Structures are given as structure tokens and as C-alpha cells.
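Sharing a chain and its predicted structure for anyone who wants a worked example. Both blocks are below, sequence first, C-alpha cells second.
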Amino acid sequence: MNEQLLNLAREVGARLAARGEWLATAESCTGGLIAAAVTEIAGSSGWFGYGFVTYSNEAKQDLLCVPAASLGLHGAVSEHVVREMAAGACRRAGAQWSVAVSGIAGPGGGSEAKPVGTVWFGLCGPDGLAQAFVRHFDGDRGAVRQQTAIEALTVLLWHLERRQALA
């Protein structure tokens, strides 16, 4: 597994464990890659309990309570849906933190509005408010998935550090 990804998972885990907080993941285009990196870390069972792989729209609805209307109106790769995925993961897992990803890893499936490499990220923290942002990655399917997992943990780590600095 990518060393940068493992180092990020280790740092995220150290911060969560120190505060007694829990993480859940809600993954579509990464297919569990973020959860796999997290569970490579010894002791992760003390801060990670749930990894939802919700590749299909039905899985997003059934496991994360994303409304069918949201998927129909906005599409799975959207700000609205990743916010709902992140919030749903926190609620379903009883976690303080969650990261959600939904994107187009390729090689097909892209459009003019959402080209291959488009990934929406959702993040939910202890305040229960889910936020979202989009990134556009280059490379093949594996590269897009890898960059997505790295970005998800990088942004989560930034938020954990920021919250710690404000405390």
C-alpha cells in the first residue's frame, strides 16, 4: 500500500485515539481503499468502527439514508450527495467524524459536466455539519482512486489538527 496513504492514516488515528473519537468512511469510487489504509494501522479498532462501501445508488440509500430524490436530482457525484453520505455515515456508525467520496475514476463514465477524475468529498465532524468540496485528478483509474484516498485523509487530518489548535 502507498506509504503516504499509510502515514496519513497513522496520523489521523493518533489524533482520534488521543481524543477518544471515532471515524467512519463512506466510499463509492475508492471501493474501500480509505478503510483499507486505516485498518492497516495497528490499533485502528480503537478509533475506526465502520467503513461503508456504497458503490451503487441503492447502497447509498440503504446504508447511508441518502434520499432517492437527491440522487435523482443531483446525481451520485455531487456536493449534495456527498454531504448526505458523510452525515449518514456519522449517524449510522455513531462516529464523531466521517469522510465520504463519490467520483468518476474512469476510464469511462465521464461527461462534459463531470469529466473522468472528478471527485466530490464530504466531511462531517462532531458538530454534525457536513461540508463538501470537489477535486479533479489526472491519471488512470488506479491513480484517481489513490489520489482520492490521500486527499480524503489529508483534509480530515487538517480538520483534526485545526480543531485541536482551537481547543
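Comments welcome. The helical segments are 3-19, 33-39, 57-64, 68-74, 79-93, 141-166.
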